[in-house]
Amino acid sequence: MPSSSLSRGLLSLPLIFTLTPSVARAALVIENRLTRLEANTQFGYIGGLNTQLDSKTYSSLIADLQVSLSGSNSGEGALGDGSWIANFNYTHFQDLTWNSQGWEANGSTDLFAFVGDQGVAAVDAQQGNRLELGFRVDAPTTYTFSGVFTDLAEIHLDQSVGNGLWTPLANPVPGTFGIELTLAPGSYRLLASGGGFHDGSTGMGSAWTAKLTAVPEPSTWALGFTGLMGVGAVIGFPRTRRPLN
Predict the structure, then answer these.
(1) Which residues lie below 8 Å from residue 149, measured CB to CB, with a gap of 6+?
(2) Are 155 and 149 in contact (CB under 8 A)?
(3) Per residue in 157-180, pLDDT tens?
(4) Rounded to whole angstroms, what are the CA distances from 192 to 61, 91, 155?
(5) Quick check: helix, strand or coil at residue 24?
(6) Does this model's pTM top 0.85?
């Protein structure tokens, strides 16, 4: 095939520019984690109460990333000229995931207590579902800090200023939130907590979700070639054969 024909064929090869978002410079490293789950309970009857603290603590960065704490008790009986009945149950749950582009954490607290006659049952788990997550950013990166949380829950994002001191970056109010932040190289922490209470007549639990995600940079053009299949037709190979001598 003549070189001029090949050149014309190559020039006719379609060039396709593909728009591909990229996340550059995002380099997030989890440095430490402290999960604390706890609940204080009272159970029994007037004149005969048992008080108990149930708690668990986790700090591993490779294990126990999905944890829970739960408990319950119930009872009834005669008491003088009357009787008593009481029961309670509670469950804390926490889940944590991350990669070099960000992290996501979730927590929930569900509890209930019931009493009758002279029974006593109460669950106090105020801020009983807590997470402190420390992380480092190695390059200036823009992130979206988002999530949702209920009453009796709190979420804070802080930046280290050295000597064990922190300055707040985001303190959202209960509800859904979404904040875009450009984080400079340095150390940061997430503080999230939730809890609840129930005294046998009234009470409530809580839930929270927080997420930090690197924002894709403005889309960049990536040059791609297509037409590899059937390239002979594209670059103009002759469609007829020469007769054999």
Answers:
(1) 155, 172, 174, 175, 192, 194, 206, 207, 208, 209, 210
(2) yes
(3) 999 999 999 999 999 999 999 999
(4) 17, 17, 4
(5) coil
(6) no
